[in-house]
Amino acid sequence: ASISYDFNPKHSLGASYEFHRTPDFQLSDHSEYTVHADGEPTDRTNHSSQTLQQSSKHQLNAYYLGTLKQLQINFTADLVHGKNNEHQEAEEVSQTEGNRAISSFNRANNRLYAAKLILTHPLWKGELKTGADYTFIRREDHFLNLQNILPNTDSRIDESKTAAFTEYSLPIGEVNLLAGLRYEHTISDYWEQSEFVPEQSRTYNDWCPSFSIDFPLGKTQANLSYTVKSNRPNFFQLRSTLSYNNRFIYEGGNPLLTPETNHDVQFTTLYRWMQFSLNYQYRRNAIAFMTKEYDQNPDVVIFTTG
After folding, report:
1. Which residues, other chains included, contact 95 with Cβ-Cβ below 8 Å and sequence gap of 6+?
2. pTM assigned to the model
3. Cα–Cα distances in Å, from 4 out to 12, 48, 115?
4. Which end of the chain is more exposed for a tag (fewer CB within 10 A), N or C?
5. pLDDT tens for residues 15-47?
6. If residue 237 lies in a helix (H) or strand (E), which one and from where to where?
7. Contact yes or no for 228/262 (Cβ under 8 A)
8. Would strands 249-252 and 297-305 be described as parallel, antiparallel, or unpaired?
């Protein structure tokens, strides 16, 4: 559902609401595998699981667009509330280890509040764009395994981010210049079992510059750009819960992840319908998929990020 109203050609506002619901999404898995030790088969296991997932999400957005003389105003605000429930029943039949049943319940609540203001005004021969934005995100994760094979968790993450940015574009003949700078201040707090955990709570201060130039190169049009962006791990990657794939493989998140910083240099040329692009990217503290040994059982491997 959405509504908008134009007061006149210079002022308008609107809002929209969306509701998403997945009442019953079921997954079934049946597999059979052989266990080898030192190159010799030692066991044969049948694995079956049934997973029920349910989710709902409310999303509200509002905006205002206005012009005061030469000043352009762009304001947006978002509110998102979501819930996810997952129930898994798994059973393994092993020739040497016997039968094993695994029952797990996971409930996650998410909320987001965000607002952004952008002001644009002519300056000298170019255009100045400046603004600020604020985001608050909370995720609550509750996980219960009845057999205590996987650790039970009750965690909460609060993240608030405040940012200010400015950007200036300047055309000089056939050359267009663009330069910008963004500053972000982020506070991320972590709770486990309703107790604050300072080791997993962090504060970040990031400067993210950007530069771009468009220019003719003979009969082609060329662009050279450099940007720095901060990429923080999402809540799914930060989750503290473990899911059971089979007796030897678990899957989970990593609440100790730190943000990665991306430095991106790109050169592009365009001639008629042909395009040539050369890109170099450097990622510091890169967030990547990895496997590691489970601390409580060296025979188990955890699929995670690091």
Report:
1. 43, 44, 45
2. 0.88
3. 7, 51, 18
4. N
5. 999 999 999 999 999 999 898 888 999 999 999
6. helix 235-238
7. yes
8. parallel
